[in-house]
Amino acid sequence: xxxxxxxxxxDARDLIERLMFGSMAAQTVRxxxxxxxxxxxxxxxxxxxxxxxxxxxxxxxxxxLLRALxxxxxxxxxxxxxxxxxxxxxxxxxKRPDSLIALVRMFTxxxxxxxxxxxxxxxxxxxxxxxKVFGKDFFSYLAELPDxxxxxxxxxxxxxxxxxAALPQAxxxxxxxxxxxxxxxxxxxxxxxxREHPTLTGVIYDTxxxxxxxxxxxxxxxxxxxxxxxxxxxxxxxxxxxxxxxIKSVLHDWTDEQAVTxxxxxxxxxxPTGRILIVEPVLPEVVDxxxxxxxxxxxxxxxxxxGGRERTRTDFAELCRKxxxxxxxxxxxxxxxxxxxxxxxxx
Length: 347
Description:
Keywords: Methyltransferase, S-adenosyl-L-methionine, Transferase. By secondary structure, this protein is an alpha/beta fold. It has 17 helices and eleven strands. Strand 4, helix 13 and strand 5 (201-206) form a beta-alpha-beta unit.
């Protein structure tokens, strides 16, 4: 075996080990959030024994946790037993407006992990693992647990912040008068659009549970007079009256048949000059881990949790065709990867 072969073999082993310990790394981050260690360390270097005292933890155990967090790039080790927070770790501080805590908590939620344990079954059968494990679909499960539903809404809001900042400059909203955000949740994305386009009015359309935090969002941004809330079921209908229908991170939750139903209802109320703007990741036609990266894991998550999928441009074009729409453009949202803007018009 040559030196090059040995290097390649070691690199391969290192890759397998990183993947093998991946779930443990996620639980390490979850423990850090539950113990509030990032907040307790703050902006200065702190000794592990002091952090342990603040949390009521055993000092040696806390040191071991902080060492592991340093190995993951969330803390930086200094003198023996002393640590500070890295820029990545700072995103786990609940006091920051750009905190990702809710997102991490949601994706390390025990119910999500229990469903993921059945990934192989979903691959074999095509069934939704979550439904089989819990005897109900994911959104029905959330509806019965208000605290978890609020956590989910907060996680989706955190996931949408980057898009909300980038979208208003990436699309010509000025040519429209009213936009309906279909499945708009707490209004993070639509608020971003309305703030940048003062002549535009909006409608957030979602279930009662999905809209629960929307009034707070609109009030925070001074948009209560320019945006209305409508509760309903997009599998039954979509409110009429808008010339732009925005659908972000919705279609990937559903099967092709269900996605066509949502788009068909949007098409039914779309004026001749109206547009539908879909904001979702678009997988390349040929696997490209450089540009798509974690989107492939998101695709598996959709399969396991809700039965949906991530899609290619060809897939989106086919959904639009079946709904009486024509896909006119797909534009990567450069400031908020991996999302793209998919524009469709009446066919």
